[in-house]
Structure formats: structure tokens, C-alpha cells
Amino acid sequence: MNERLAFYKFIIDSLPIAVVVIDSEFRIAEFNSWAEKLTGYAWQEAKGHHCGEILRSGMCDDNCPLKAILNRAESTVGVRTSILSKKEEVIHVQISAAALFDEEGKLLGGVETLLDISQLVALERERGNFISMLAHDMRSSLTGIHGLGLRLLRKPVGMDEEKERQYLEIITREAAKLEALIDDFLEFSRMEIGTLKLNLSATSLDKELEEVFENYEPRAAQNRISLELQVEDVLPIIDADANRLRRVFDNLLDNALKFSSANGTVTITAQEREQEVMVAIADDGIGIDPEDLPYIFDTFHRGRTAAGREGHGLGLATVKSIVEGHGGRIIVSSQPNVGSTFTLFLPKKRS
Length: 351
Ligand code: ADP
Fold this sequence. Notes:
With 351 residues, this protein is of the alpha+beta class. The protein is built from 10 helices and 12 strands. It has helices at 3-14, 33-39, 43-46, 51-55, 65-72, 118-154, 161-192, 205-222, 242-258, 315-325; strands at 18-23, 28-31, 76-84, 90-101, 107-116, 201-204, 226-231, 237-240, 265-272, 276-283, 329-335, 339-347. α6 (118-154) packs antiparallel against α7 (161-192) and α7 packs across α10 (315-325). The longest helix is centred in the middle third of the chain and has 37 residues, at 118-154.
């Protein structure tokens, strides 16, 4: 192989996209390493086969992109379809094709590129699920509020004050749930379109943590969980968006309480370090399955232990983007049935 050819082969092999080159009879003539990875076939296995036998795409039978070029003399760009891998897995891809003809219009060969879009398709599906779950949860809160509101308006004879109070309490609780849900959704949309803007000002972490503690203490006590705040020294004043930081602490504490059982302990600790401030929220609850840990901050990801508990898998994704927006980072350590600790580090000075 001459040097130039070897160089072209190297380029095709290095492209982070599957490239399949076919000859004039639609037989595979080149197959780069991404094509091997995507389809599961080694180059030696694919070589010489009709491309439809290897790719088994939804388009192969009636809508072959290369035949379409032959018929209509136009190239296929970025068409979504799926292929079947050697292991019979359905892989969603975006396919593009181009063909080379001789002077008489006879096909000399063609090239197909396939981009793996499985993750994108999964995200779209999850987003769809999320929207319907959100609508469902909003609807059930609203239906409750509506029904109780009507009852209070009609005020049947004999409705005592205690009942009336109970209804008002449920209405208030459901309305607060709706508000939190909408807040999460708005924050998520802002994050997605990149318009999450922080309003930074001098913020006392001591004050923030004290207020969060006071806010959550009664709720923890109601669930027979002991909430502790351990801050030894005075914490520095940092440049932060206090409202957004509050959302971070609220989300982490909501989770710590949600995934703990009665008689558990949730501890908030904070410490000043050389360049940063560390805040950790630890619980001794049900913990996180090791298989979920790498994805726990992903949007919509809900751990397998979360089944049966309220949530939409948005909280930690929001927490992470707010912390990173502040130039900080967040880590998690967890063990099933032992507990979880979320530790965030915020820079003392923003660069
Ligand atoms: P949600 O709580 O709405 O499911 P989050 O994004 O807040 O969504 O959390 C994602 C997942 O992380 C949860 O579904 C749960 O599996 C796991 N998780 C978060 N915090 C904890 C915790 N303190 N203990 C155990 N699991 C947790």
C-alpha cells in the first residue's frame, strides 16, 4: 500500500463515525473501526458481504440510501433509521450516503456513514416520559385542590371547623408540591437552553445553613429523623447566588429525608479549606446501588432504589449545574443500606 493510501486509510479509521464503503455491487469494500464497534462485525467478517446483510437497517429493503441516489441522483444526509447489530441489538443511527459514478452514470462505489444516536433517542424518550409524568403529577395535585376547593365553597351543613382546616391544609400542601414541581421544571428548562444565570452577591454560608437547618428540622422530626448541623468555625463569606444555593441544599436535604427511615440521622457539616468551602450532607438511609452511582447526576436518572418514592430525576442534575455554575464541584459516596454522602466544594474566590 503506498503512503498516500495508508494515510487515507488512517484518516477513515480515525473518524469517530462508522464508515462503510461499498463497491458497484453493493458489497462491502471498506469498514472502519467505528463500523466494527457499531455493528459488532470485524472487518474480515463484513468484507465482501452485501451491505444489507451486515447493516440490516430499516432502510435496506425498500429505501436503500445508495439506490435512492442511483434513482434520484441526490445524496442522503442525516436520515434517522436503525440497524441490527451482530448481537441482534437495535441501534439507532443517523445515516448519510454518497455515491461515485463514472462518466456514463454507472455506479463505481459509494460510502455510507452511520452516527450512533442511541443516547439521543433514549434521552428523547426519557424527556417524553418526563413530560407525561410531570403532567400526570400536576394534574393529580390540581384535581385534589379543585375538589377540596369546591367542597369548601359549598360548605355542606355540618362541616365542622376541624374538617375545614384539614381541607385547607391539604390544599396548601398540594399547592406547595405543585410550586416545587414547576420550579424544578423551570430550572431544568433554563439549564437546557443555557440561560441559567446566577445572581452573585456576598453570601454568608453560616446564615444559609442555619436557615436551611431551621426549615428542615421540624420535617425531619416529624419523620423521626434526627437532623444535625455541625459547623465548627465561622465560615467565610463567598460570592454566590443565595437563592440557587438554597435550592441545592433543599434538594440534597429533600433526598436525604426521602431516602432515610425513621430513627435515622441526617448530618450537615461544613468546613473552610484553603481555597474552598466544603459542605457535606450525609444520611444513613437506603443508599445508592453501585450501578446507579455513575449516572446519579444525569438528567432524569432515578436510581433503582427510588421506586415507589416521589420524584422526577431532576434534582441532582439541577444541583450539579448550580454548583458547577459557581465554579465548584460535587461528589457522592454511597453504599446500599449504609447511607449516602453528597459533598460539595465551593471556591472561596471566583476566578
Ligand atoms: P429524584 O429524587 O426526583 O428521583 P434526584 O435527581 O434528586 O431525583 O435523584 C436521582 C436519584 O438519586 C434518585 O432517584 C435516587 O435513586 C438517588 N438518590 C439521590 N439522593 C439520594 C440519597 N440521599 N439516598 C439514596 N438515594 C439517593
